[in-house]
Amino acid sequence: MDLSQEQKVRIYYGLKIALIAFLVAITFNFLTGFSYHGNDDKQENTITFSGHGEVSAVPDIANIYFNINKEAKTIKEAQALVAEIEKKSLDFLKENNILEKDIKTINASFNPKYEYKYETERSIPCTQYNCPPTPGKNVIVGYVASESITVKIRNTDDVGKIMQGLGVLSVSDLNGPNFSIDNEDELKTEARKKAINDAKEKAVVLAKDLDIRLGKITSFNESGNYPVPMYAKGIMNDNMVSESAPAVIPKGENLITSDVSITYEIR
């Protein structure tokens, strides 16, 4: 059946309006952080909104890490030297109110130390034009014992004093502090609530702008919900060890974030 000119014009403008509406929907998706999904099989339409929430708090614990490394002729002697430093370190930590449950050995080991020893006599003599290298072999000359310990400091005001004290006890690789929050569950819950409210506020505004009605929630997803710790690096040096007054270490704040996406059914 042939279409009249007037019918062709109506079809043309109808397609043009549909294309404009489609482009507007894509633009909203890009600018506002929600997405629209059509399901031809179930005849179900959904729309998704994103939300972000964050909570900051002052850290209430600090974690530090250090090694004890000692070398001796025998394994027994090397381990005895490590045990001596370990005892001094543990006594010092307990004197500064560090609980036994907050001190943890995460690694203990010993390894042979080798040196390459050359033979005193050459098996092949030198000539006028060639002098081969003196043969030799690796020989065990001692043993190195090591122990790695982590410490949780619950009174963060004592971090500088404790690290300074450990620094004069011949420990090595003293690292930290890593400031964190001991019980983060309440803060994570608060950040999640903020993210959900953010997504819901977007849903109310944009549903009104798009002239649609939202139905039940069909899906919910969360990402993030983790703390971003503050680190204090490079605080241990010769000046800090030699000074009588311990360094004051700023704790800053930790940021806990949550990102959610909520998908609604469109009625």
Word description of this protein:
This protein has 267 residues and is an alpha+beta fold. The chain folds into two domains: 33-57 and 184-266, Translation Initiation Factor IF3 (2-Layer Sandwich); 61-120 and 133-180, Alpha-Beta Plaits (2-Layer Sandwich), CATH 3.30.70.2970. 33% of the residues lie in helices and 39% in strands. It has helices spanning 5-32, 75-95, 159-167, 185-210, 238-242; strands at residues 34-39, 44-57, 61-72, 103-118, 136-153, 172-180, 214-228, 230-231, 254-266. A five-stranded antiparallel β-sheet has the order 4-5-3-6-8, with helices on one face. The protein is elongated, with a radius of gyration of 34 Å. The two termini are 37 Å apart. Mean pLDDT is 81; it is low at 230-243.
Write the CATH homologous superfamily of the largest domain: Protein of unknown function (DUF541), domain 1
Number of domains: 2
Quote the distance from N terminus to C terminus: 37 Å
How much β-strand is present in the residues?
Answer: 35-45%
**Cross-sheet strand order for the largest sheet:** 4-5-3-6-8
Model regions low in confidence, pLDDT < 50 over at least 5 residues:
230-243
Give the class from helix and strand content and strand pairing: alpha+beta
